[in-house]
């Protein structure tokens, strides 16, 4: 196996380092976060850090780096409180990835791509049209990570929209059936295929 | 689309609710966390919440629920400081999933499965033998989430072991080539296939 000590990692060339360290969490969720400023400028941006923090109440976290384009999303969420999380299906990966470009605040990324804005239920929040899973989220709290200034932002699910044929009778949502992708590292997009669901495990006698 | 309001989610039957809410983050990383108590009892447990928090220094977070079997892992990490993260490949998903069974503290999950303990570099930390990516981690800090008592535990990568043929020349680790799986919801395991790596994006002129 190829090995890297802590000291070797610290001295890696920057791009090599971020490719490597972003790869070794395992696969990551692939989402487009939709937000809008109070002045009416929509934003959509790809995130690979959405993670489950609890089901009662339904809380999801996402990580913001201290200085990236993603701060447009952060600023919008702080202004508006409401935002959307939209799962990325295989057919839109190129446009989804393009939202990582560092556009200035006044540019609407929906207009720079073929991603379509969708507004529903009279909410002032842009969703990504045709995403197989869409979540209306509301800001709950944030935790600043002292070690590097990143921010863990927590939101609560306010409303959930899921394509009918993806939901099993027990609530499981079959993301592979919806062609939802995952992210590998900074720039790898993977398609997924359900191997199987495994039963609830009890200790062996 | 099937819709669920916040109020409807709150009143869902418990198992339906946790299946649903655990599915809608998108795909999740699939890792086995190895730990050991100072009294010498190893533990291995599946986690789907490992997330990237930074590359300089290389920080990964994971989420602990307030009251689950996973707390054996938490207690061990607090005692020993060191632990391992091991990516789950397709051939071991049944054993990996079995580590979610609620065994008492004194049971070594390695002995209840075909997962093999591996010790290396004279470190007092069990790794999962033959995992395509193995990380030696050291506890850095933790943040208690006020909203529900979950704990975000941050660790720093101390040493990284990656199968030689998975690393591209720019540091990207091809997890699909290593048969690394992702998790869908609580109990779905998906195989992955790299579609493509997309180039670094700059704003369109």
Keyword list:
homodimer; about 200 residues; alpha+beta; seven-stranded antiparallel beta sheet; three-stranded antiparallel beta sheet; 4 helices; globular
Walk me through the structure.
The structure is a homodimer of 205-residue chains. By secondary structure, the first copy, chain A, is α+β, with helices and mostly antiparallel strands. Chain A contains four helices and 13 strands. The first copy, chain A, has a seven-stranded antiparallel β-sheet. In chain A, strands 2-12-13 form a three-stranded antiparallel β-sheet, with no helix packed on it. A two-stranded antiparallel ribbon of chain A has the order 8-9. Chains A and B meet through strand 1, helix 1, helix 2, strand 2 and strand 5 of A and strand 1, helix 1, helix 2, strand 2 and strand 5 of B. Strand 1 of chain A pairs antiparallel with strand 11 of chain B.
Compact description:
With about 200 residues, chain A is α+β, with helices and mostly antiparallel strands. Chain A has helices at about 5-10, 15-25, 70-80, 95-100, and strands at about 1-5, 30, 30-35, 40-45, 50-55, 60-65, 80-85, 115-120, 125-130, 135-145, 150-160, 180-185, 190-195. Helix content of chain A is about 15%, strand content about 40%.
């Amino acid at each position: 196996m190829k090995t890297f000590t802590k000291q070797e990692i610290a001295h890696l060339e920057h791009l090599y380092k971020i490719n490597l360290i972003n790869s070794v969490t395992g696969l990551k969720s692939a989402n487009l976060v939709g937000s809008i400023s109070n002045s009416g400028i929509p934003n959509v941006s790809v995130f690979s850090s959405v993670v489950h923090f609890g089901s009662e109440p339904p809380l999801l976290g996402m990580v913001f780096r201290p200085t990236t384009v993603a701060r447009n999303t952060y600023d919008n969420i702080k202004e508006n409180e409401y935002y959307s999380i939209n799962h990325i299906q295989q057919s839109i990966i190129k446009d989804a990835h393009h939202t990582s470009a560092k556009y200035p605040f006044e540019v609407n990324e929906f207009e720079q791509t073929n991603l379509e804005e969708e507004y529903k239920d009279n909410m002032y929040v842009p969703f990504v049209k045709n995403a197989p899973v869409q979540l209306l989220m509301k800001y709950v709290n944030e935790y600043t990570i002292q070690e590097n200034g990143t921010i863990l932002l927590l939101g609560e699910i306010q409303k959930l929209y899921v394509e009918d044929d993806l939901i099993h009778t027990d609530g499981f949502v079959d993301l592979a059936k919806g062609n939802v992708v995952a992210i590998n590292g900074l720039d790898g997009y993977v398609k997924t295929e359900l191997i199987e669901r495994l039963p609830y495990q009890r200790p062996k006698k």
